[in-house]
Specification:
Number of strands of chain B: 37
Helix content of chain B: under 10%
Oligomer: heterodimer
Structural class of chain A: mainly alpha
Pathway (chain B): Protein modification; protein ubiquitination
Number of helices of chain B: 4
Shape of chain B: elongated
Protein name (chain B): Nitrous oxidase accessory protein
Organism (chain B): Sphingobacterium wenxiniae
Distance between the termini of chain A: 20 Å
Shape of chain A: globular
Largest sheet of chain B: 24 strands, parallel
CATH architecture of chain B: 3 Solenoid
Radius of gyration of chain A: 19 Å
InterPro entries (chain B): Carb-bd_sugar_hydrolysis-dom, NosD_copper_fam, NosD_dom, Para_beta_helix_rpt-2, PbH1, Pectin_lyas_fold, Pectin_lyase_fold/virulence, SCF-Subunits/Alg-Epimerases
Order of helices and strands of chain A: HHHHHHHHHHHH
CATH superfamily of chain B: Single-stranded right-handed beta-helix, Pectin lyase-like
Keywords (chain B): Repeat, Ubl conjugation pathway
């Protein structure tokens, strides 16, 4: 990792108009939600949809576009006496910091101001992790695909898959196997989608009463315990680390 | 009566008096006498009261059953027991041993006692015109079969149960074949099974009670003409826990109650002609689960705020005869153009997803997913699975101030 590169990427991104607009839109949305809803848990529920939908979309699409646009800058860096791994990780840190910062200002601060409870904190941590994860996935798609249009297309497809299609498939599978004891399997399958993990973690805070019911209790027994929480957190971190690892490995050997 | 009073004597019991045991005093006493028991520890096995006396504790004497005996048995009318701590009754799986057991009698008052670590607390059988007021009952049951009910009443009538606190028993208050009884201002919490449980107990009234964190909430069954008003049902959590479970309850009134943070607020099965008005449902998993076996119920002016699901039902087709009108729903998205305070379009409180959950409980894991929200929206536009008739024609626009 190289501090100069990180610093350059961050300052470049913070001057970027898209990031600024993204921050302001998030801020306007979260402020208006909290101003309208007098009940904080209901506010969190409305904000949840934004966090689960918008954050992954912007994180993955913006990062992909940024990486393609900086391909010349990256080529220049590679010609310098720098390790490729350092360049790539510095780019990731820069992007991740900028996206997290935008999220923190846009959603984090209003949430912690208006709803400073466990549900609020969970929401903020979830949003931060989702930002990291989708930046990491963007690193992987953009390094694998040389063509910019195809790369952005894949990024959008991946987002669609995680945000919508995965749940539809899950619902379909659930109907097919409803006669079997699939609750524990469901938890395992949900681990395959970081958006679902974040959603369930918040669900356990704001719909606690319903989650105390029969199947809810099974989820609660897993996610509600310390070991379950730690496992979930590790899996979220793995979701950020694994695409980054593969993209770094690929970038090292890539013919630029 | 007047003659009785003029002959009434007062017998003092205590270390410093000639009569040192309650047993001796009971033997000496005549009908109408008052026994004043001074502070101390009285472990005298079973005390059977067969005379019409007042047994009054001064400075809270302790009557101890030593985990072997039934401390007090009452086998006559007109008895008062006041101001004692009664503890450690025997346990039995054959007999229902209680701290105070009434073996048929009338005009009995049990007031201001502390009942600690007993099997059953106060047990009435074939009693009438009794008053159970301001007692505190605590048990430390680990499992349902190891502990009895707090206030248990069987085949009794005209009982007044007021201002008691019941903790850690099996059922807080249990009434079976009990009629014309008033249960008021009691606090029943952390009991292993039900906070309140009654069966075949017609014409009773339950007002201003609080039922909190009981193993399975409150269950009431096979009863007619019940009035439940201003009660609070809260934090009854679990798969089989209900704020209020109504099974075969008919012609009853459930008014002005508050249901907060229950997994299921009200669970209704086979219940007909109930008036459920002006209740508050807040932060429940399911505010009301109403089965298709329920008919001709009226739900009016209730408020539903921040429940995960407001109404769930099992039957989708068929005509529902339950009337929902003038309720406040925080999920209502309609408008009020004529400004009469009621929404202009009906509200359908049953969401598609709540129907799905009834059939596929595991689907709960997908709640609040964007996919599910999309389904719910589509269903609202073109209803196909949700019961078309179950709707509120006059949804309130503003939360009624209560």
């Amino acid at each position: 990792m190289n501090n100069k590169i990180i610093k350059y990427v961050i300052t470049d991104l913070l001057r970027n108009r898209t990031i600024l607009v993204y921050t302001l839109v998030l801020l306007a949305l979260s402020l208006s939600i909290f101003m309208i809803e007098d009940n904080t848990d209901k506010g969190i529920a409305s904000l949840l949809n934004i966090v689960l939908f918008v954050i992954p979309l912007v994180s993955i699409v913006f990062s992909t576009i940024y990486l393609y646009n900086s391909s010349e800058f990256i080529a220049l860096l590679v010609s310098q006496p720098l390790k490729r791994q350092t360049i790539w990780l510095s780019l990731f840190i820069g992007l991740a910091t900028a996206m997290s910062l935008a999220f923190l200002v846009g959603v984090g601060i209003p949430t912690l101001l208006f709803a400073p409870g466990i549900s609020g904190i969970t929401l903020v941590i979830d949003g931060l992790l989702l930002s990291l994860i989708f930046v990491s996935i963007a690193m992987w798609t953009s390094v694998r695909i040389r063509d910019k249009a195809k790369g952005i297309g894949l990024a959008i497809m991946l987002w669609l898959y995680f945000a919508l299609i995965f749940d539809a498939l899950l619902l379909f599978a659930l109907f097919q196997f409803a006669d079997y004891p699939i609750e524990n399997l469901m938890i395992a399958v949900c681990m395959l989608n970081p958006i679902d993990i974040s959603r369930i973690l918040i669900l356990l805070q704001i719909d606690l009463s319903a989650m105390m019911g029969y199947t809810g209790a099974i989820f609660r027994n897993f996610f509600g315990t310390h070991s379950g929480m730690i496992i979930t957190f590790i899996i979220m971190l793995l979701w950020a680390a694994i695409p980054l690892y593969f993209s770094t490995r690929f970038f090292k050997q890539k013919d630029l | 009566m007047v003659v009785g009073i003029s002959h009434a004597a007062t017998i003092k019991v205590g270390k410093q008096y000639p009569v040192t045991t309650i047993q001796q005093a009971l033997e000496k006493a005549n009908d109408g006498d008052t026994l004043l028991v001074y502070t101390g520890h009285y472990a005298e096995g079973n005390l059977t009261i067969e005379k019409r006396i007042m047994l009054i504790g001064i400075d809270r004497p302790i009557i101890d059953g030593q985990h072997k005996h039934e401390p007090i048995s009452i086998r006559t009318d007109d008895v008062t027991i006041k101001g004692f701590t009664i503890q450690k009754s025997g346990h039995s799986s054959m007999a229902d041993i209680a701290a105070i057991k009434i073996y048929s009698g009338k005009n009995i008052s049990i007031e201001d006692n502390i009942l600690d670590d007993n099997f059953f607390g106060i047990y009435l059988q074939g009693a009438s015109n009794c008053r159970i007021i301001n007692n505190k009952l605590q048990a430390y049951g680990k499992a349902e079969h190891l502990v009895g009910n707090g206030i248990h009443s069987w085949k009794s009538n005209n009982i007044i149960i007021e201002d008691n606190e019941i903790i850690g028993h099996r059922d807080g208050v249990y009434l079976e074949f009990v009629t014309h009884t008033r249960v008021e201002r009691n606090l029943s919490h952390n009991n292993l099974r039900y906070g309140l449980h009654f069966m075949f107990s017609h014409d009773n009234e339950y007002h201003y009670n609080t039922f909190r964190s009981n193993g399975a909430g409150v269950a009431v069954m096979y009863t007619q003409r019940v009035r439940m008003e201003h009660n609070i049902f809260e934090e009854n959590w679990g798969d089989a826990a209900y704020g209020l479970l109504l099974k075969d309850i008919t012609d009853s009134h459930i008014l002005n109650n508050t249901f907060v943070k229950n997994t299921t607020g009200i669970y209704m099965e086979g219940s007909n002609r109930l008036q459920i008005h002006q209740n508050n449902f807040e932060s429940n998993g399911w505010a009301i689960r109403i089965f298709s076996s329920c008919m001709n119920n009226t739900l009016e002016q209730n408020s539903f705020v921040q429940n995960t699901f407001d109404i769930a039902t099992n039957g989708s087709s068929g005509k529902t005869t339950n009337i929902f009108t003038g309720n406040y729903w925080d999920k209502y998205e309609g408008y009020d153009l004529d400004k009469n305070g009621y929404g202009d379009v009906p509200h359908h409180p049953v969401s598609l997803f709540s129907m799905l959950i009834e059939r596929y409980p595991t689907a709960m894991i997908l709640f609040r997913s964007f996919m599910v929200t999309l389904f719910d929206r589509t269903e609202k536009m073109i209803p196909s699975l949700t019961p078309e008739n179950l709707k509120d024609e006059k949804p309130l626009m503003k939360l009624p101030t209560s």
